[in-house]
Amino acid sequence: MALLNVTDVDRRFYEENLKDFLPHKILDCHTHIWLKEFDHGEDTAHRSCLWPGMVAQENPIEDLVESYKLMFPDKEVIPCLFSNAKVTLNLEENNPYVREKAAQYGYPALYLAHPSEPAEQVERRVLEGGFRGLKVYLEYAPSYIPNAEIRVFDFLTHEHLKVADKYGWAVMLHIPRPKRLADPVNYMQIMEIEEKYPNVKLIIAHLGRAYAPTDVGDALDVLKHSKTTLWDFTANTCEEVMERVLETFGPDRFLFGSDLPIFRMKARRIVENGFYINLVPKGSLGDVSTDPHMREVEGKEAEEISFFLYDELLSCKRACEKLGLGKSDVEKIFYSNAARVYGVK
């Protein structure tokens, strides 16, 4: 059975909308690889949305490579690898798997750091493993902290940031809190990181989880004063948010990420009253009723849905066109910026 079902709808979407827009060489700054054999339990805390876990039980490196071949048949894609951020996944097994496959394929990788790890251990493992920096995630904040009250420094510790600053590592940050980027706690702590740890290459994943215009709030009025913080538009399809971030920071601080395997699903996104909803073909992911961000469609509407990643890329294309960005800017977004951050030649 093929990993992905590539239909005529998918081929037409790619040929008509993306093929000529995308550069030949792409560096995907945000991908996950893991094996289900490293998953040793059931996550009952549910600190984040459920729908990403519906797409794949595992994503071995071979599946990631095959996904690129099927979705971008005429492009050369280099991923930055890191573990899936699931609390039941044994990082003592999966981080070494990421390390092994990054070395085998010659790909950059980030070390998924748990906030309880001693800084000395993180430093040693990153250096010995050839990792280019850290991936951190709110799932690993102490369990006694309510979801809505998690702060960045509850899972990205100052001790880890000091080490990252010492070596000038990349740090991929998925911000917490229900108001997303609009939450002053989030954007003030982003500024604090830049001010205290100027050598850290801080990447704000998913454009700060601003999947709708209302998720931005007043954040950019403060963050426009940042000088180095980078933004990846991974798993984001909001053209308006992309435009605002590009206008504020320029194309030199804007990065492409796929969130594979998550965004290989067939879906497209709409926003209703500031709440994002993923439209998926009925039955394609099993029971989606447990997540309010999911809605099934059928008939002609379902038949015309292509890969979620294509939806993300089309939104980026439209934002770039609206701002008058040229091919050299697009090349930066899809390759050079991430190559600079991760030290890829």
* Radius of gyration, in angstroms, nearest whole number: 19 Å
How would you characterize the largest beta sheet? 6 strands, parallel
Q: Which strand-content bin applies to the residues?
A: 5-15%
Discrete helix count: 12
Name the quaternary structure.
single chain
Distance between the termini: 36 Å
Average per-residue pLDDT, rounded, comes to: 96
* Tally of DSSP β-strands: 11
Overall helicity: 25-40%
**Major beta sheet, strand line-up:** 3-4-5-6-7-8
Textual characterization of the structure:
By secondary structure, this protein is an alpha/beta fold. 37% of the residues lie in helices and 14% in strands. It is built from 12 helices and 11 strands. Helix 9 (239-249) crosses helix 11 (308-322). The longest helix is centred in the C-terminal third of the chain and has 16 residues, at 327-342. The radius of gyration is 19 Å and the shape is globular.
Short summary:
With 345 residues, the protein is an alpha/beta fold. It has helices spanning 8-18, 61-71, 91-105, 119-129, 158-167, 184-196, 206-209, 219-223, 239-249, 300-303, 308-322, 327-342; strands at 25-32, 76-82, 111-112, 133-136, 170-173, 201-204, 230-232, 254-255, 268-272, 275-281, 294-297. The relative contact order is 0.14.
List the topology elements:
Blueprint lengths: L7 H11 L6 E8 L28 H11 L4 E7 L8 H15 L5 E2 L6 H11 L3 E4 L21 H10 L2 E4 L10 H13 L4 E4 L1 H4 L9 H5 L6 E3 L6 H11 L4 E2 L12 E5 L2 E7 L12 E4 L2 H4 L4 H15 L4 H16 L3
Parallel strand pairs: 1-2, 3-4, 4-5, 5-6, 6-7, 7-8, 10-11
Antiparallel strand pairs: 9-10
